[in-house]
Fold this protein.
Amino acid sequence: MSSQQPDRHPRDGLLRELTLLDATFLVVASVIGSGIFLTPGRIADLLPHAGVFLAVWVAGGLLSLAGALANAELGAMFPRAGGDYVYLREAFHPLAGFLVGWLSFFVIQAGTVATLATGFAAGLAELVPLSPSEQIALAVVLVLGTSLLNYYGVRHGARANNVTSFLKIAALVLFVVAGVATGRGDVARLAASDVASGAIGLSAFGLALSPVLFSYLGWNASVFVASEIHDPARNVPRSLFVGLAFVIAIYLAVNALYLYAMPLSELRHSANAGEGTAAALFGPLSGTLVALLVLVSILGTLNATILVTPRIAYAMALDGLFFAGVDRVHATHKTPAMAIAVLAATSLVLVAVLRSFPSVLDYTTFAILLATIGDTAALYALRWKAPDRPRPYRAWGYPIVPALYIVANAAIAVNMLVYRPRECGIGLATLALGLPFYWWFTRRPNPIDPGPA
């Protein structure tokens, strides 16, 4: 490791071009996408009681915050490209880092790109008639176009992200304030339940956490681009906490507005809760305007995800644990060009294979649970293995809060494995598929020795 830049990989050619504002908006944009609009109906169907419905969003936010506390310490310790891959490699073994990096890249992030692209196409089809094949074609164009934007420079992607994030936050705040000001809803619905439904069990709560956690996906976005953030030891933790605080507040306000605007029996069958709420409070035309907001929001999250994700494969390739050439930085644009291309190709395959939005969602969420359990476990291993390593930030609530996070995520993962075996099986199969690739990467002629960070 270079003595001039001890927090960077010696072959990392990316530039420090991202500010605290960039990193914070990267978290906000990565999180607030389609989930807050498209998943509440499914969650209300699983949890047809207003109080429990809001409670699951609080639980998802607290779980994400617990993960952010651990990632803040890890990200400040290892402010490098790659995120989880680096942490598990340092805490356990290069194989552990490789497997979580493999899972994060090929399942979590590529699955998210596919979900967002297909979600945009499905949303647009509600406004403009599009055949199933035309929706697939549109999703392909979105993936390729956004990938090209980030190929030509991280500043291009960051600027677009900052603008869309600001507009997204402003629009959602205006949506909530104006919605309440109409007086056309019913505050009593915030404590109502659907009388036609039965008792709510723990398994239903656990299944509801799947789309909720998907809606919070992206809270750790800034750790993956840490080597490109100015003063990462300070700004990585700050970006996680400030960004996530914005998201939790907005999510609770927007979901409360959904309940205010629609009876639970109606919300349970709403494919797009934002559009339905706007139509109920402002009339049909405003419902169309909110549908357009949803599409813009999805585009912003798609851009943020494609900005962040290639850094995982790039970091693995720097250590010789990925396909040859993926560690290359474009001579002019200073971006991980080959890693961006690999992400685009993988996402397009998922667009074709997993066309159902709920299917892609569960496929992605189960993998998230496995990866976040792993990186939180890395926090404990590194406290024991490297107690004297500088820690610019130390996780609040250690060791209790991270332990609760691991237990909660493990319980949700088991519940999903029982009730969503197909999607979980795809994630586990993808993880297992990484083993022969690891064997191959480590036995190539003249492999690069990762060594200690």
In short: The radius of gyration is 21 Å. DSSP finds 18 helices and no strands in the chain. The CA atoms of residues 321 and 441 lie 5 Å apart.
